[in-house]
């Protein structure tokens, strides 16, 4: 079992390397890409190098791990994520003390913070292994086992659920100014200051486009890369979503998505379908895992009840997106950008601190059609199709077999 998992992981890593080669080898506009490479060169994240290092480390873990059932170690997982919640609070307190905004013993706070970091470093391998097992078991329970099961019976889940908790890279998202659409995405280093981000964005914007550097919660490398700064529920959803991107790469929809990523065949609607499908399915799987193992015990995810302010962020974001699209459709680019900045300041006044609101922001977040930053009807259509599907697997397989938005619309008729 362990040996087979290692071989399949090696095969999938090779596929990942091929995809990386395609991404770096395709240039739709050589002059633009030459300038872009020069701007981002000092900050670029080397995916291939990370794959070699991470996969080597994962291979060692596979052979050294003791077999445990999906129910073992639940207390250790809850302790790990309780530590993360406490770490966030301590980091905020330390920042406030250093800025002189509150009183506190900086040395005591830092000692506690370092102790929690050490505890989590000792637990992380066990936490990764247990969550991988739980996600895999629920996927199997739902019949989501192998994207090639119609053709090849490999006997184990494929690709094996495998992720690493850490700090994922940032992503530079580039959109044209005259429409909202992702035209380039460049992975950047995990460690970047706000000044670094704004400097890159200013240089890229000077090329006549709209850009934004965003922090990623996860990345579908192999093993997947998932942030170690988030809650348990977010981690479950994100680890499952990144696995689904790997799974879908072997399906018609996912293959079309790969063609878009590599620049061979751009199709923003396919991107939206793929991202939204993976997000919807991962939330269902994540909820099942959470309810089965952690809901009665885990408390670190429970947020205090939000105060009733009367401000509806979802409605506000949809309206902003609708107005921006109207401006751009009329060719009023400067007016659209001025409107977005005014609305960004308004959101900040209402407690939502968005660093930059532009075409690239909506191109990145709007790829998820079930989010308020998207006005695409694809989200509604996928929700309708899910409600008509007999099972989660039927829904996933139906959409995964599609190669165009037209097929989705026709399936609802």
Mean pLDDT: 84
N- to C-terminal distance: 44 Å
Main beta sheet strand tally, sense and closure: 3 strands, mixed
Question: Spans with pLDDT under 50 lasting ≥5 residues?
Answer: 1-28, 299-307
Write the element-wise H/E pattern from the N-terminal end onward. Answer: HHHHHEEEHEEEHHHHHHHHH
In total, the number of strands is 6
Please indicate the percent range of residues in DSSP E strands (runs of 2 or more): 5-15%
Summed up, the domain count is 2
Main sheet: strand order: 1-6-5
Shape: globular
Kindly name the structural category. mainly alpha
Q: Work out the oligomeric state of the chains in this entry.
A: single chain
User: In which range does the helix fraction lie?
Assistant: 55-70%
Query: How large is the count of helical segments?
Result: 15
Rg to the nearest angstrom? 22 Å
């Amino acid at each position: 079992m362990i040996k087979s998992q290692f071989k399949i992981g090696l095969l999938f890593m090779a596929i990942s390397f091929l995809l990386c080669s395609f991404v770096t080898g395709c240039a739709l506009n050589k002059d633009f890409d030459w300038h872009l490479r020069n701007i981002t060169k000092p900050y670029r994240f080397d995916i291939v190098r990370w794959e070699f290092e991470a996969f080597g480390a994962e291979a060692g873990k596979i052979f050294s791990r003791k077999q445990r059932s999906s129910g073992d170690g639940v207390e250790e997982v809850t302790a790990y994520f309780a530590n993360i919640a406490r770490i966030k609070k301590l980091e905020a307190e330390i920042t406030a003390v250093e800025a002189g905004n509150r009183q506190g013993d900086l040395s005591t706070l830092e000692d506690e913070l370092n102790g929690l970091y050490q505890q989590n470093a000792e637990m992380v391998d066990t936490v990764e292994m247990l969550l991988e097992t739980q996600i895999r078991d629920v996927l199997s329970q739902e019949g989501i086992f192998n994207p090639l099961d119609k053709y090849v019976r490999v006997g184990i889940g494929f690709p094996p659920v495998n992720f690493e908790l850490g700090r994922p890279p940032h992503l530079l998202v580039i959109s044209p100014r005259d429409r909202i659409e992702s035209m380039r995405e460049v992975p950047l280093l995990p460690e970047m200051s706000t000044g670094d981000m704004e400097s890159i964005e200013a240089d890229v914007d000077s090329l006549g486009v709209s850009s934004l550097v965003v922090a990623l919660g996860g990345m579908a490398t192999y093993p997947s890369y998932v942030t170690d700064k988030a809650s348990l529920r977010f981690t479950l959803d994100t680890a499952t979503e990144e696995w689904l991107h790997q799974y879908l790469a072997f399906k018609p929809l996912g293959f079309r998505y790969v063609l878009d990523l590599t620049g061979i065949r751009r199709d923003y609607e396919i991107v939206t379908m793929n991202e939204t499908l993976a997000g919807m399915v991962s939330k269902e799987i994540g909820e099942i895992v959470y309810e089965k193992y952690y809901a009665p015990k885990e408390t670190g995810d429970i947020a205090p009840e939000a105060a009733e302010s009367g401000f509806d962020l979802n409605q506000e974001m949809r309206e902003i997106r609708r107005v921006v699209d109207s401006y751009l459709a009329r060719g009023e680019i400067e007016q659209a950008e001025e409107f977005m900045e005014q609305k960004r300041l308004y959101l900040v006044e209402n407690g939502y601190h968005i660093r930059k609101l532009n075409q690239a922001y909506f191109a990145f977040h709007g790829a998820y059609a079930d989010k308020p930053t998207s006005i695409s009807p694809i989200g509604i259509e996928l929700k309708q199709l899910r409600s008509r599907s007999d099972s989660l697997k039927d829904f996933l397989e139906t959409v995964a077999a599609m190669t165009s938005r037209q097929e989705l619309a026709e399936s609802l008729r």
